[in-house]
Amino acid sequence: MTNLPVKNATYRQVREKIPALIAGCLVLFLLQFSPPGVAKGNGSPESVKAELDRINNKIQSLNRKKLEQEGEIGKLQLKLKTLDKQVAHNLSSLKKLNRRITEATRKLHDLNERLQAESAELSHHQELLAEHIRALYAVPEKTRVKMLLRPGSVSERRRDQVYFQYLQDARMAQLSVIGNRLSKLESTNKDLKGQLSKLKALKTKAETTRQALKKDRSTRKKTIASLNRRLKSSQNQLKGLAANREQLNELLERLRFAAANPALLNKSNAGFGALEGSLSWPLKGVVKKTGLAPGVTIVAPAGKKVHAISDGTVVFADWMRGFGLLMIVDHGNGYMSLYGRNQSLFKAPGDHVKLGTVIATAGNSGGYSESGVYFEIRKDAKPLDPRKWCKGS
Predict the structure, then answer these.
(1) Shared-domain flag, residues 113 and 140
(2) Between the CA atoms of 380, 381, 386 and 391, what dihedral angle is there, to the nearest 10 degrees?
(3) For a 10 Å CB count at each end of the chain, is N or C smaller?
């Protein structure tokens, strides 16, 4: 690592070195501290996922304790971590609520259409009933009696009797149909009111979530400003960099003895090494190589989908200092890809992903002002230039 004199160090240079140190330590641990059985893929998927969860929880627990020991800067970093996670959670909740509102609105539309159709059908049957009644009473009752008692053949009297009976039966049938239609109309109207109430409740909840998201983002912005003020001097910047390195070394040393038989699954992806120069970028954006960081920053709008560059297994998915919301995917044979600064993470440790799987969304978690994704590719913990591996660079 190149040493920077205190007087010439800048916050931007130091910030760029933080992800490199953390990534190097974390990847070294995942690759070197696993027992021989791990490389062979021993262990059931359930035990693998449980072990990854346990190790990641341990990392976060130790990370939190270390930050608490670093005084005010550590507290601000811890607060930033909490806020980044809250923003991600509220964004996810808001998306789910919006989907439910869309579905409720569609159902409301369908119910309205059904109500209109049933109302039209009811009007039709009411009109038919009115016609039957008019036909029945077009002939006065006395006249009907006379018609039935008038001299003539039996067949004529029977015909008149059948005619009047038909009108009576038709009237009763229409009355029954109208009764059923009224009942159905009442039920639909009840469903409609229930759906309106549900839609109103969902919109209220969505608005509450939006307000919480707005508040979290505002607090996050103030926290970043406060943190930057604390780190404005070169001395504090270099001290923070050294603390990050010490923190990760201490965490990994503890984790090496944390489990007797960890069953970290490392599914083989023997062909990954042959993909150099043909991989797609995890998302479209402006690729920037700045400072001393071994990876690149892909500048893109917040919320843009981030895709896995190849098949693999998620081995880390959580907030990490210098990275924000970070995901690491193991592609086998010592190859790993890292995706940092995300707005949301969609996969958990132990999950298997395929080429093109959406694993996260771009953001600026970790205290960065510019949205996008920090991206690295590593082989046996050594950084590789992503621009040589991904096409179109």
Answers:
(1) yes
(2) 20
(3) N
